[in-house]
Amino acid sequence: MPSSLDAFARDKTARLSEAALLRQLRNQRRPSATTVERDGRTLVSFSCNDMLGLAHHPKVVAAAAEALSSEGTGAGASRLVTGSSSIVTALEQALATFRGTDRALVFGSGSLTNLGVIPAFAGAKDLVVLDERAHSSLFSGARLSQARVEVFAHNDVGELCAILARLRSSYRHVIVAVEGVYSMDGDLAPLPSLVEACEAADAWLLVDDAHALGTLGGGRGTAAHFGIAPDRIAFYVATLSKALGSYGGVVGCSEAVYTFLTSRARTLVYTTGLPPASAAAALAALDVVQQDRTRRERPLLLAKRFAKALGLPAPEAHLVPLIVGEATDALAAQAALEALGYLVTAIRPPTVADGTARLRVSFSAEHRDADVDGLAAGWRHVQAQLRSPRSLAS
Ligand SMILES: *Cc1c(COP(=O)(O)O)cnc(C)c1O
């Protein structure tokens, strides 16, 4: 064992720890959509992304169990070899029909989708422009592509247009990558003006709708929410691991894009296919999403209820950030809420910008009104403590 390696790792870790940026895994169990058991305590969770509660839905669990007993636990190989179950094909067809895209291609996860799609269509002669708050996997995909990478201020379509005006002619192709619902802020991308800006510059728009599939636009996502035809979005990405309660990722795209990605997206070709049971769960979940309007709409209603109770601006999606500032304060706030029985995990840099550490509250269709009101009261109490730091440190 090279001692230089351990010394290096320990030094880096110590620095993270000093800055309150160390992250650790916790043992836990998630017996329901809104509860987490840790250290013998049951907490009401506002940190799960399974916002429709479908990971525990009887129909979803039954579909996964049936696929598990008929197809086994793993896909056995890459989708291009023997790992493409007919369940995955059925899921792709259902996703394409529901989201209104010509085709849908399923990957192992949402992150793998972004890591596969961007480098398949961008290279050293190309330009990738991202919203500064775009998900880490979009930045990773952009860097992996070896294209020039530029960033515009969050939701600032004016700055995007200025970048395109300045650089478009020097590059062969351009990909613009944004999120539909921003995962750490809960606000929406200005999709209509982004689509227009991209069309005017012949840039290909990637919209990552991870937090919108299943909730906004009748569950179809932000394109439906804004009344935008999905074929105006070149790469319409989503995850199967949030509202659909399973695991996996998907890109909605044209037939031509689908066909090329199938041969050349490295994270599709060189990785094992999605487990059939995960695909079966996502397929059953999609069915519930389509049929259960109350479930689709409840997370946003609860977010609005919470924001109103605290006098915060009305949320656009089911995510509400409580910005605290420093990482140490965010950790202290998390601990104080945990003492009251609520789990709201602190979000710290580099996931969010320095000085904007926060608690991100994610509402679920399975939360009771009383859970939401209880958290609002708890947060008021914790906020008062935060204003007098001595009591919080003790
Ligand atoms: C959660 C998330 C991902 C990652 O999806 P996984 O399926 O968990 O890999 C990607 N992009 C955005 C915007 C997300 O919120």
Features of the shown structure:
seven-stranded mixed β-sheet; 394 residues; four-stranded mixed β-sheet; alpha/beta
What does this entry show, briefly?
This protein is an alpha/beta fold and 394 residues long. Helix content is 45%, strand content 17%. The protein has a 7-stranded mixed sheet with strand order 4-10-9-8-7-5-6, sandwiched between helices.
Instruction: Supply Rg.
Output: 21 Å
The hetero compounds bound to this protein are: pyridoxal-5'-phosphate
State the shape: globular
Give the class from helix and strand content and strand pairing.
Answer: alpha/beta
Strand content: 15-25%
* Helical proportion, percent range: 40-55%
Any low-confidence stretches, pLDDT <50, length ≥5? Answer: none
The average pLDDT value, as a whole number, equals: 96
Total helical elements = 15
Topology order in helix (H) and strand (E) letters? HEEEHHEHEHEHEHEHEEHHHHEHEEEHH
In whole angstroms, the N-to-C terminal distance is 41 Å
Main sheet record: 7 strands, mixed
What strand order characterises the main sheet?
4-10-9-8-7-5-6
How many strand elements? 14
Structure description:
The protein is an alpha/beta fold. Helices cover 45% and strands 17% of the residues. The protein has 15 helices and 14 strands. The protein has helices at 3-18, 58-71, 86-99, 110-121, 136-144, 157-167, 191-200, 222-226, 255-264, 266-269, 276-291, 293-310, 327-339, 369-387, 389-393, and strands at residues 29-32, 35-38, 41-45, 103-107, 127-131, 148-152, 174-179, 204-208, 235-239, 249-253, 319-325, 342-343, 346-347, 357-362. The strands form 3 sheets. The protein has a 7-stranded mixed sheet with strand order 4-10-9-8-7-5-6, sandwiched between helices. A 4-stranded mixed sheet has the order 1-2-3-12. Helix 4 runs parallel beside helix 5, helix 12 (293-310) packs parallel to helix 14 and helix 13 crosses helix 14 (369-387). The longest helix has 19 residues, at 369-387. It starts with a helix and ends with a helix. Pyridoxal-5'-phosphate binds next to helix 4. Residues 109-111, 135, 137, 179, 183, 208, 210-211, 239, 241, 249 line the site of pyridoxal-5'-phosphate.
